[in-house]
Structures are given as structure tokens and as C-alpha cells.
């Protein structure tokens, strides 16, 4: 982290923020053994220039993880560049194009990662819905207000694909249902492809799902996506009040034991914005940091033992002729 010589006010804020980060109990990752991943909706990041304090705080939060999916990154990438400068030379980013219409809200989706811990392996694309021939044209069978985005990564000897999405808000919960169902169907089709980049698939982002008892959660998990065990035990949400489970990390796990470590929510707010931004209202605070909290978990990335077990099991099942 390269905070340099911040002002006295920012230095004090960073001290408070680090205490709040410490309370989240995020374990350190180990090279080629574990990976800390997160998803964070950084409210309208790039629409209006962030303060110097906000840039330092956002960098400090992101730096706790090895791979982060960013939601609500806007068309102007200037503030992202300011954050990357503080994170340092090992950090990289891949991001989607922005969508200029009102539904797209000029938003991008992105993956920010520390390439010492995780390697980008080449796939980066917007999600293409299946098409059906109609006359002489091939037309998509469903669509999203903002196209989900995916990329492939490797850490240790563990390869995986991550898909990030930002589901529309709508006028009511049921307005989100078609997009969520479509995403579940698409992810299922993806994992069943014979030439799929990898069978281990993570689906994360802001799904605007109020709770795990909601029909929206039933829809996103209807095709086999599931919560990692580390996140099943969480009893609070990812909004500042910690009452709504808007953000999710879900998976199809070819190696499910890789997704059973610790996880949680990093609460940088803790009911009080004053130590970070003195005199700032809660609403304005959300446009400096966010109205969402990062959701995170740690994965195992050393699968040598699992692969050896599979070889042994496969060969011992064979009957001699």
C-alpha cells in the first residue's frame, strides 16, 4: 500500500478504518495456498470525483483482498486510476465497456486483482445470451439491463471463472426476477459446455436480493448455484444497516472443499461516518465510500491433494480383467 504522506485528517481516518477492518477478522492469504476474494458495489464510482480521503479509504479496503469484483464502476476511470496508484504496481484491472443508455447507467463491471496472488488467464468478455434463429437473423433469447461480465483466473494450481453481475433495481422486487432467472440459466449452460474454460465457476455481484428467504434467491439458486459454506452462516446483510443480502458470492464447485473457509462482510461504516468524514451526512458518505459493504471469503487454491485422491480413487475402482 502506498499512502505516501497523507494529511493529518486522512491519517486519523485510516487509523480508524484499519480498526474496523481488523474487526472483520479477514485472515491473511498464503501464496499458492489460499486466496481472498470479494465483491463490492462502490456507489457510482467515477460519476463524481471522490475526495482524497475517499480514494485512500477505498484503496485500503480493496487492498485487504486478492481479487475483487467491482460493481457500479462508471465510464470515467480517473478515480480508479487514483486508487490503483495507492495500491501499487502489482495490481491489475480488467473491465467491461460502459453502456450509455439509461438502463446501462454508464456502468462498467470490473475485476481488480493482485497479480502476485492470482493470474488473469485470458478470458474477459461480456456474457452473451443464447440466440435462436428467427428468419435470417439470430436473436437473443433474453437480456439484461447491464450485461454481466466474466473473466478467467488462476491461483496456485486452481483455475476458475468469475462472473459478476449488477441486476436491475426496478419498481418492485419481482421486476428483478427475469434477469435473475436468466443469469441462473446462462451460468448453468456455461458450466455444461464441453469446451468450457473451467468447471469451477463463481457468480458474484449485486443481485438486489433482500434475503435468502426471498423468491429472488430461490431463482438464482434454481439451477445449482449455491452459497459456499463460509457464507451460509452469515446473519447480516451487505447494506450499511446490515439487513439486506443484496450482494452474493455463489458457486458451482468442481472442488467444493475449496469453498469451505471463512467469509463475511467488511463493515467500514459501523453506524458512524464521523471518524472517516467529519461533518458529512450519511447520504453524502455513501457517495464517498459506498452504500454497500464488501462481501468476502477465502478459498483454498492448493488442490494437489484432491487431484491425487481422484487419481487413486479412479484407478482403484478399475477391476482387473
Number of strands: 13
Strand fraction band?
25-35%
Into which percent range does the helicity of residues fall?
25-40%
Q: SSE order in H/E notation?
A: HEHEHEEEEEEEHEHHEEHEH
Distance between the termini: 61 Å
CATH topology: Deoxyribonuclease I, Chain A
Strand order of the largest sheet: 3-4-2-1-13-12
Radius of gyration: 20 Å
Describe the structure.
With 321 residues, the protein is α+β, with helices and mostly antiparallel strands. The chain has a single domain, classed as Deoxyribonuclease I, Chain A (4-Layer Sandwich), CATH 3.60.10.10. 26% of the residues lie in helices and 27% in strands. Strand 1, helix 2 and strand 2 form a beta-alpha-beta unit. Helix 1 (8-23) packs parallel to helix 2 (52-62) and helix 2 (52-62) packs across helix 3 (78-87). Mean pLDDT is 92; it is low at 308-314.
Write a concise synopsis of the structure shown.
By secondary structure, the protein is α+β, with helices and mostly antiparallel strands.
